[in-house]
Amino acid sequence: MKKDSYLFTSTHLGFRTWINSDLEQFSAMNSDPETMKYFEKPLNTEESKAMMERMNKLYEDKGYCYFAVERLETSEFLGMIGLGWKTFEAEFTPCVDIGWRIQKEFWNKGYTTEGAKRCLSYAKELGLKEVLSLASSDNKASIRVMQKIGMEYWLDFDHPDLKKSKHLNPCSLYRISF
After folding, report:
1. What is the rounded distance in angstroms from the CA atom of residue 178 to the CA atom of residue 172?
2. Tens digits of per-residue pLDDT, 96-132?
3. Dihedral pair phi/psi, residue 24, rounded to 5°
4. Which CATH homologous superfamily contains domain 3-177?
5. Which positions ≥6 away from 119 have C-beta within 8 Å?
6. Cβ neighbours of residue 92 under 8 Å, at least 6 residues apart?
7. Is the CB of residue 46 less than 8 Å from the CB of residue 23?
């Protein structure tokens, strides 16, 4: 895509809402067991499409979502990085969180950290005062990204939506204030 078609960019990445042509790659990424190791289960095509639709609706409602992310240089689809709205039952919800999921071939190249930093800047531009992030305590890669982007450990908790997936609990919660 052309640079002016993005909502915002970072050095190497373009952030945008979801389009129908994202579904094939997004679904392939979401159905990969290794990529989805720290989620309840891999997603099928219908679940991936529903997620894209939820993200576009969240953007319409709140001005943010887990954005579709592309490499600016090549327009390759990397995955998603952005801001979400969490309402599950916990002492810290409802809250804005930052999260990511990118295709395996782009792991360990700095894109997630770069994209997450840019999304925190976007959160600040929106006037948000705090952003949280959570991951299974075993998900060392995501926790490392949280640390690299300046978030601080807050607490561990058992995610109420993951009671059937005991291997994902406890979750670690990080936060940053602006």
Report:
1. 21
2. 999 999 999 999 999 999 999 999 999 999 999 999 9
3. -60, -50
4. Gcn5-related N-acetyltransferase (GNAT) (3.40.630.30)
5. 15, 67, 81, 82, 83, 98
6. 132, 154, 173
7. no
